[in-house]
Amino acid sequence: MATVPKPSELGKVDHRPPQRPWTETTPEFRPGTFCYGAKAKNLDVVGMPNPREWNPADEDWKLPDDWKDITLKGMEDRLNKFRSFKLFMDICVRCGACADKCHYFIGSGDPKNMPVLRAELIRSIYRKYFTGSGKIFSKYAGARALTEQIIKEWFYYYYQCTECRRCSVFCPYGIDTAEITMMGRELLNELGCGIDWIMGPVANCYMNGNHLGIQPHAFKDMIMFFVDEIEAVTGVRVEPTFNRKGAEVLFITPSGDVFADPGTYTLMGYMMLFHEIGLDYTWSTYASEGGNFGLFTSHEMMKRLNAKMYAEAKRLKVKWLLGGECGHMWRVINQYMDTMNGPADFLEVPKSPITGTVFENAKSTKMVHIAEFTADLIRHGKLNLDPSRNDNKIVTFHDSCNPSRAMGFFEEPRYVLKAVCNHFYDMPENTIREKTFCCGSGSGLNTDEFMEMRMRGGLPRANAVRYVHEKYGVNMLACICAIDRAVLPPLMNYWVPGVNVTGLHELVGNALVMKGEKKRTTDLRYEPLPGMEEEEEAEDV
Amino acid sequence: MNASQSMVFSLVAVGILVCLPLIGVTAGMTSLFGVIIPYAAVVVFFVGIVARVVRWARSPVPFRIPTTCGQQKSFPWIKADNLDNPSDTKGVVLRMILEVLLFRSLFRNTRLEFYDGPKIRYASAKWLWLGAIVFHYSFLVVFLRHLRFFTEPVTPLVTLLESVDGFLEVGLPRLYISGLALLAGVTYLFLRRVSIPQLKYISLPSDYFPLFLIFAITATGLLMRYVFKVDIVGVKELTFGLATFHPVVPKGIGVLFYIHLFLVSVLFAYFPFSKLVHMAGVFLSPTRNLPNNSRMVRHINPWNYPVKVHTYEEYEDEFREKMIEAGLPVEKKE
């Protein structure tokens, strides 16, 4: 694995394009800038085409003989299935408004990371084979013949896009590069040219219910470990149930929360909250993954993985679904789930058993976001909160791409945040809400071999954090996304040392005053609560 | 192709297009350039646009994928942004009106400022928006003003437009702001394209060609009106003849007019096959013209098909023993 250059080196970015036209440049598969290819065994698990051992850095990609036909047929098929794809191939005027909006372009200066050029990579092929003018005028009409080199270029740049949709906010026609990247990746996957960091989790999720491939007994064990942890901090023993029929609510969160810090503290926060309000809920080991790396593979794979949520809800005869903090999971739930795997007519319109609030905005999908749920609890005064327990945390909030630009989820998490901590400062306006910057590792690119590009892509986000870090002393970056929780800590270490990362419900867990709790001296990370530093030391001795 | 090749190619193309009527009309082909080509161009335009829209419309919108640029609708006590994140048709219509008429998304534009350190700032950048507004609206006004040539008596709308457009009341004939604004707009769009390195890098011949073409159309129009006068009575006779399907070709209209008319014809015919179809396409963009209500109302995908899934039964079959051992409930004990 390549070592990542120092921040001072990586921070020197030249945004001026090279002399050679982009049609004549080819990507250099340099370690740190691309992800490993999908392994045959993972493709086999889910029955995806052209499984083989291969390496993107090799000259020979072992493409199937009819790779060109597959690609062009695949394009035609998708042009006929997705108006978005067809329209976005035709209407771009190359005004360049999107160019400097992409975090990868900002951090790398590579002109093909400008969303407009990323789209042109496939648009030029579209013109050549699907438009009259492209067939006749060829390069004069901006058309290119499809070559193996272009497949490699697609791989390089469609796995250097996190499908964050920031560019589509600024596009005067709403052209969404995520759509184009999704099509590009679908075509690549038809040739067996996916990346393993996506296909591994896909295969695991398909067979075992979650990205890590955690088996049912181990999943339970891991959660029970955090039950002990909660007890150690609060003195309260929470009692989660698993695969329990007849529970009112099925709770699904990304599996990252179950196994990796700091997501695990968020997991503790969820369980403390549910215990405190007496929510009748169950976990599922079968549907033990909120995230959906199918979204980063193909629409079909997204549907295949997502199907478990409704299937399990039906089997367990729950009334409605509650979803944890996750970015792309919520894009799938908000914009795809009901269409793909609904109608969920076997469920009831979600109603908070504590406040009686009916979640009208989820009346068809029947799935509620945990931050909505908690905001409603707080609004109705159902939680006893002591925000001063978070007083040593000066917090800012990272709007995750998908809840922001595929949902519009801005005020609910902020409402919760302001109720559970006293020091909250937003980052500058151009870097939050619908204009938020990606963590740089979304859409399945959160792998270590891609670290250099991750640090580059995360630079705009880190830069905005540094601004509030220097101005207000912010030392905690809150987020509602499992990938964020996994990737923002290294990003902060790299660009803005001194800023930690937390999930929203970790802060809720800290602030939540539970019935029967012992005198708390630490937060969920076993770090002393404000004012308890000495007691902690005394205890340690 | 690099930027200069693209520009030269487009420039030469427009140059040839200017020469064609120049040669043709001098050689006496006035009916061809005055009647046949304009008719053909208008037919190509309408048929082409309709075909294009039908082509788009034939592909379904399988998923509701609006780009949400404001707060979603959730609780009554959280103010939803129905304009940038519409949850109903009314909001969508408003969003589209602002998008189409005021270029709202473009108004958000910022400019990256990257300093050593690294330190990044995002500066306000409304020039593109302003340039686009000036260009499109002046073009619209110029277009509408030309209705004078196709109606008799001239519709009051055109007369009103002319009086507003010529409010400066200078020059003879009276100076219209829109003509100059259009020239300025198209010049700005061109200068912008060649002076911003990234933009120059992404530009294709098909980006320069319409700019040069529109520049040439505007320039010939301005020249005709203010400098080299053509026989305006003859022009109206010809254009009105076209509009009433009784084409006549009066003699003695200057060749400049035929060049202007031919370039306009080319623009019409080129329109449906070029990026200029964004005029129609913007209405169909699924990231803008759909409400963000997919959790409230189920969106139907016409080609939704069953997929292979790993069922709970298969899952339990694989893990049953481990599940029983861990105290997890199972469907089948054996």
Features:
heterodimer, A: mainly alpha, Glutathione S-transferase Yfyf (Class Pi), Chain A, domain 2, Rossmann fold, 3 domains, 24 helices, 7 strands, 47% helix, globular, B: 334 residues, mainly alpha, Fumarate Reductase Cytochrome B subunit, 2 domains, 2 strands, 58% helix
Report the uncertain regions of chain A. Answer: none
In terms of DSSP E residues, the strand content of chain A is under 5%
Number of domains of chain A: 3
What is the structural class of chain A?
Answer: mainly alpha
Structure, described:
The complex is a heterodimer of chains A (541) and B (334). In chain A, helix 16 links the parallel strand 3 and strand 4. Chain A is globular. In chain A, the strands form two sheets. In chain A, strands 2-1-3-4 form a four-stranded parallel beta sheet. In chain A, strands 5-6-7 form a three-stranded parallel beta sheet. Chain A folds into three domains: 9-194, no CATH class; 201-379, Glutathione S-transferase Yfyf (Class Pi), Chain A, domain 2; 387-511, Rossmann fold, CATH 3.40.50. In chain A, 47% of the residues lie in helices and 5% in strands. Chain A has 541 residues and is mostly helical. With 334 residues, chain B is mainly α. Chain B has two domains: 3-303, Transmembrane di-heme cytochromes, Chain C (Fumarate Reductase Cytochrome B subunit); 305-334, no CATH class. Chain B has helices at 3-26, 30-58, 89-102, 104-107, 127-145, 156-165, 177-195, 197-202, 205-227, 232-243, 255-270, 278-281, 312-325; strands at residues 110-115, 119-124. In chain B, strands 1-2 form a two-stranded antiparallel ribbon. In chain B, a hairpin with a 3-residue loop joins strand 1 and strand 2 (119-124). In chain B, helix 7 (177-195) packs antiparallel against helix 9. The model of chain B has no long low-confidence stretch (mean pLDDT 95). At the A-B interface, helix 3, helix 4, helix 6, helix 9 and helix 11 of A face helix 2, strand 1, strand 2, helix 8 and helix 9 of B.
